[in-house]
Design goal:
heterodimer, A: about 240 residues, alpha+beta, Immunoglobulin-like, four-stranded antiparallel sheet, 5 helices, about 25% helix, B: about 675 residues, two-stranded antiparallel ribbon, 33 helices
Chain lengths: ~240, ~675
């Protein structure tokens, strides 16, 4: 192209085609670590779109295991997850605190934190969190009303756990190793008809005359979503995404 | 080609003569006319439908899924809801059960909800523009459509358009509605629900017309400046007053204070010199515990954690606030100072009053008022204070001598969830959407302009989301939906028991914790049918010494130190009036149980129904710790109540943890017989 004016116009036109995304500048790191560890905030359950009750706290350590101040931590996650802030530097104690909002789709979602390592490679850590849809929120409410006293080993001042008083001990709903082996139909039957009807402990009373079918389905849905290791529904998985 | 007219040949070809001009115009018209149909070929929904078919083509269940797919623009039309939703043109697999494993949008299956697509459509819950056929117009606000999609975290708001009563699946909405009353939002803002109910505040702001008896100008100054510095859990918001303004407001309140019912007593009273003996303090602390003050009042413990209920004010620094002589009178009988208080009238004797006063006055923070030095107020300051009190609407919440509660002090929020976009202003950095507007306005009202009167509340982010959700549920649609779809809000009951017992029930403020016939709190048992439930002897004993039932609970019935005559009045009234219509006391005559039946009941209890998993009868052997201890239930409950309880616990106490076991009449009768045989008195009581 001989005409410099045309060349200039072409350059302007092409520049206009490039989408400008607002990228907030990353803070400049003053140090690098070699390990990234979770202090707290993993394995929380919160309803879709809402902010997790507890922030995620991460810590950057050096090769000796000492906390590193001023290291850059960046966050990413399952599409739809939002972070406040999405990147920042570790504080005096080598920690970085971030508020996480769940994506819009119910189920497990991943939070991926990374920090540039001192050897040049990025160090990454993955945290698993849970987003609850309508059915699971209803299940959680029912759990708090009817199940938690026996099925949760944790005690609070307002709610003393009854788990240790029972023999055999009830399964905590997070016990994926056991509960994942039961089918939905099994769980619905045990909740509805009680333990004895299915050759389980008679201490589990029947709830079929207290809860409606959709209520019991919601409870099962909640039990499935909090299972650890995660529950996978039976049947072939066709979708590759 | 002439150098001065490089396009001359083109002009000659196209516009050389009339025929050419006509031909050129015709071609142009044909091109323009073809643009519209051609654009239709590139609509979003066509692209998505093609993508969908490609996605399912490779699946083994393709034939099945393809059969259920129908192409073209899809529409859900519900005339009575004014719904015309074409969302399913792109979201083609909303009802496709086989695609539950797909997470790629717009092809996800809709998660299970209690309503069907064809019943309500999409926009009733999700908002957005239903008739739009392009993704952007459907989801986002455009110049012609102000309502973008509602973010997932506020989704409960949509349920609240029809469900004006609390719903188990919408905890955030329920909490938000509760907070609108509890945080006192509806003192200033009017909220009329779609069924005509006007929301009422459920907090209890103290009257200020006698405040000079209760506290000092210095304390008012400090509190008005920053309420949370006095008590972290104080519900009073921060008005960001300057020192001068806080001084003038406090001067006005002190100047306008009139003598209360305590007046004559306080005038002659000499405050008992506060005893600082450690023994008196310890005794006061244990009386504070025994009286279950913590059921309603919170206080910071040594570790800095707030322990106790939130019905009454936090008492961590009460010693900085209360004047000793006032505190004694208040503990003695609160209604003399505030006739509408939720605090019950304990029958404490002089010594107990003095012990509690000593203990409470020791709860101070020496830093709180250390730097507050106020000169005697001038008339100008008091006048200015009055102007401020009027300007900031203090009388909306508090009773203040000489100032009427202002009408319509703050904007009506009954349609806040549909507030037109043109009426919204946004401070810098706030996303231009209604939910963000509402949320930022509640979080920091003064960021919308320093002259705004709305104060700043101390809210957690969960509380903020709940409040925003409750406000977003107040939409135009909520008011226009057909009457038959609306689930009305629970009616506020005005129930007031009559006679001597009624006066006692008011004096003891039973309604602060107990509900009767739809009125009252939810901290303790509903007493509407208590007369069918308990035996007279037991009730008399319980009112004398309430510490026997569920001893592990933190929040418990306090001991009111009632006289025998008062207990008799209450017991007679409750047993006569609070009877369930569905329980016939003669249905199961007590005392007619054979030992065989009792034994059969015991077997059912331990073997068939495994009641010992949750209840204790034999304290050595049974461990269950969910329901109450049953070792003396035969002394407490009536046989008819127990029988009916076994038949359906939820019917007698909705929400009870005990499930309905669908017992036969025989089983229930045998178990009742066993229960009635349990009359072991606790050792402490036998003494």
């Amino acid at each position: 192209m001989r005409n410099p004016v045309m060349l200039f116009l072409l350059a302007v036109a092409m520049a206009g085609c490039v989408k400008h995304e607002q990228v907030s500048p990353l803070p400049a790191a003053t140090a690098k670590g070699s390990a990234l560890v979770e202090v707290s905030g993993g394995k929380q359950a919160q309803r879709v779109g809402a902010t997790l009750d507890q922030p995620i706290v991460l810590q950057v350590n050096d090769a000796q295991g000492a906390a590193v101040k001023g290291a850059l931590v960046r966050l990413a996650g399952t599409s739809g997850t939002t972070f406040e802030p999405s990147a920042g530097l570790t504080d005096e104690s080598g920690q970085f605190t971030v508020l996480v909002s769940a994506p819009g789709q119910a189920g497990h979602f991943e939070v991926i934190a990374s920090t540039p390592g001192s050897d040049g490679k990025a160090v990454e850590i993955k945290l698993d969190e849970i987003a609850l849809g309508y059915e699971q929120v209803l299940g959680r409410q029912l759990n708090a009303q009817f199940c938690i006293r026996c099925h949760d080993p944790e005690s609070t001042p307002e709610r003393v756990s009854n788990m240790d008083n029972l023999d055999p001990k009830p399964h905590a709903f997070t016990e994926g190793d056991t509960l994942n082996k039961m089918s939905d139909a099994d769980l619905i039957a045990i909740i509805g008809h009680g333990g004895e009807a299915l050759n389980k402990s008679a201490s589990m009373p029947p709830f079929g005359y207290t809860l409606s079918k959709p209520d019991i389905q919601a409870l099962v849905s909640y039990i499935r979503v909090v299972a650890d290791p995660p529950y996978h529904a039976p049947g072939e998985v066709y979708a590759n995404k | 080609m002439s150098p001065r007219d490089p396009f001359g040949w083109l002009r000659r070809v196209l516009f050389g003569d009339v025929t050419r001009r006509f031909a050129a115009a015709s071609v142009l018209l044909a091109v323009v006319a073809a643009i519209a149909p051609a654009r239709d070929l590139f609509r979003d929904w066509r692209r998505y439908q093609r993508q969908y078919l490609r996605l399912v083509r490779v699946r083994p269940d393709a034939a099945q899924v393809q059969r259920r797919f129908s192409g073209g623009i899809q529409q859900i039309w519900i005339p009575e809801l004014q719904v015309v939703d074409r969302c399913t043109s792109c979201h083609v697999a909303l009802k496709e059960a086989n695609l539950a494993d797909t997470s790629v949008q717009p092809f996800r299956k809709h998660p299970p909800i209690p309503h069907s697509l064809t019943e309500f459509g999409c926009v009733v819950c999700h908002r957005g523009q239903g008739p739009a056929t392009s993704s952007h117009e459907a989801h986002h606000a455009t110049e012609a459509w102000e309502e973008p999609l509602l973010p997932a975290k506020y989704m409960d708001a949509s349920c609240g358009q029809c469900h004006l009563a609390p719903l188990r699946g919408t905890p955030i909405l329920n909490e938000g509605r509760r907070l609108l009353g509890r945080k006192g939002c509806v003192h200033c803002h009017t909220i009329t629900l779609a069924d005509g109910t006007v929301m009422q505040p459920t907090d209890d702001p103290p009257p200020l017309n006698h405040i000079a008896e209760k506290t000092t100008q210095e304390w008012i100054f400090a509190f008005v400046k920053n309420p949370q510095a006095y008590a972290a859990s104080a519900s009073m918001p921060n008005f960001a007053f300057t020192d001068d303004n806080a001084r003038d407001v406090s001067a006005f309140l002190i100047a306008k204070s009139t003598p209360s019912g305590y007046g004559p007593k306080l005038a002659t009273k000499q405050a008992t010199p506060a005893s600082t003996e450690a023994s008196a303090l310890a005794e006061g602390a244990s009386l504070y515990g025994q009286s279950f003050c913590a059921s309603c009042h919170a206080a910071q413990n040594a570790a800095g954690n707030l322990v106790g209920g939130d019905l009454g004010p936090e008492l961590t620094r009460i010693g900085n606030k209360a004047k000793p002589e006032w505190l004694e009178e208040w503990i003695h009988d609160p209604s003399g100072y505030d006739a509408d208080t939720t605090m019950p009238h304990y029958r404490f004797d002089e010594k107990q009053v003095s012990l509690l006063t000593t203990y409470l006055l020791s709860k101070t923070d020496s830093d709180l008022l250390a730097n507050v030095k106020l000169e005697p107020a001038t008339q100008a300051q008091i006048e200015h204070g009055r102007a401020l009190v009027v300007e900031y609407g203090c009388a909306s919440c508090h009773k203040i001598e000489g100032i009427k509660k202002p009408e319509k002090f703050a904007p009506d929020l009954s349609r806040e969830g549909s507030k037109p976009f043109a009426q919204l202003t946004f401070p810098k950095g706030v996303n231009h959407a209604l939910p963000d507007y509402i949320s930022s306005k509640i979080r920091d009202p003064r960021s919308f302009g320093p002259k705004l009167k709305m104060p700043k509340y101390t809210l957690t982010s969960a509380e903020l989301d709940s409040l925003s959700t409750a406000l977003l549920s107040l939409t135009d649609r909520a008011n226009s939906i057909p009457y038959r779809l609306r689930i009305a809000s629970p009616h506020e009951s005005q129930y007031q028991p009559a006679g001597r017992a009624g006066r006692l029930i008011s004096d003891l403020r039973c309604f602060s914790c107990h509900a009767i016939n739809g009125r009252g709190g939810d901290m303790a048992t509903d007493l509407s049918w208590e007369g069918s439930s308990v035996q007279r002897q037991w009730l008399v004993g319980f009112l004398k010494n309430p510490n026997t039932l569920r001893p592990a609970l933190i929040r418990r019935m306090p001991k009111f130190n009632l006289t025998d005559a008062e207990i008799n009045t209450l017991t007679d009234y409750m047993l006569t009036v609070y009877q369930s219509p569905s329980i016939d006391p003669e249905m199961i005559p007590g005392g007619s149980f054979t030992p065989q039946l009792v034994d059969q009941g015991r077997q059912l209890y331990y073997s068939k129904y495994h009641c010992q998993s949750c209840h204790v009868i034999d304290t050595k052997q049974d461990k269950g710790y969910i329901g109450p201890v049953l070792s003396q239930v035969g002394l407490r409950l009536t046989p008819a109540w127990i029988f009916n309880w076994f038949k359906d616990p939820q019917l007698l106490r909705p929400g009870s943890q005990e499930p309905n076991q669908h017992m036969t009449d025989e089983d229930a009768r045998a178990l009742t017989a066993y229960m009635m045989s349990l009359k072991t008195r606790a050792k402490t009581e036998a003494k």
